[in-house]
Amino acid sequence: MKIKNKTLLAALLMGVSVTAAAAPETFTLDPTHTFPSFEIGHQGISVMRGKFNRSQGRAMFDAELQQGAIDVRVDASSGDTGHEGLNKKLLGLNFFRTAQFPEIVFQSSQVEFKDGKPVAAVGNLTLLGVTKPVTLEIRDYACTLQFLTRRPMCGADVHAVIKRSDFGMNYGIPLIGDEVKLAIEVEGFKDN
User: Domains, the chain, ranges and CATH?
Assistant: First the structure.
């Protein structure tokens, strides 16, 4: 058999596989290692922090085509400040109104890449029934194998700043800040 393509021959000799472009990778968020959290100024003298204990979602990344999609849903009733009385206020009528709006949703329309890694997700955040554009900054994206199961997994530190008044959450402004800093610890397992 005579091989006409020298590049193909060289690749075969070096043990390099010649295959089609890599397929998109889809990840399901690990709810035990994904915690959306927030910071907000309180009466100009301190910063109040809280988190949401339940969330779910999926992310798809195609580094080759530099495309992606993210869909995350947060159970608003899982909001937790570490103080039961404050939690009741936070989840009640003046703030998250969880009886009427049980979910907070982020869906990306675009994912930006740098050096083959996602660095930002541009999309829409729906809070209190209001949908607004938001850009999430994706920091420290990395992948590895989970040490016990050896399943492929990826994680990142995600950040954004929003104004709660943009979503109709106006109670207490300016004593309770309008600007809310979001920080999301996220990990996900690669789907089979």
Answer: 24-190 (2.40.128.110)
